Amino acid sequence: MDQGKPLLEISKEMQVSPDRIRYWVKLLETELEKQGHVCYLNPKVVKQIIAMNNLIKNGLSPKEASRRIKEVETVKPMEIQPVIAPTTQVDLSPILAKLEALEKGMFFVAERIAGLEKENKFLRFQLMPPEKPSVSVKPWEPEKVRDPLEGMSWYHRVWVKCFEPWKMRRFTF
Prior knowledge:
With about 170 residues, the chain is mostly helical. It has helices at about 5-15, 20-25, 45-55, 60-75, 95-125, 155-165; strands at about 5, 35, 40. It has a domain at about 5-75: Multidrug-efflux Transporter Regulator, Chain: A, Domain 2.
């Protein structure tokens, strides 16, 4: 008898607790195979648990995920009946003639579009304003005012700084 995989091994591979896997098995209404102190899951249940883990990671609740997995199992594939085509010969010459006419029409339209693109470029060039040489603009700067203490001796500067500070103004009001 094929025992399957141990529950602890599956939980380590999926990084899910063993109790959570037991809960999922209960929701899927399947049984764990217990031998000694080890629980085993058969390969079919392992596939269901992996699918359930993916669905739960995508945001579904465990109950909804188990319901979807059960639905997938209950749907049985139908046999596909092959369709046998009739063996009659079809004359393709009118269709080929129409295709050739369409091909010629497409080439005509493509050539016409290329000519219109050239004409459009020429007209755009004529409508563009003439290029002017760039003129450098000098930003406004305030005029430079000389330092009022310039040209004074050191003791005169000390006197003005301590006792006549209004003489240090650069601008007179």
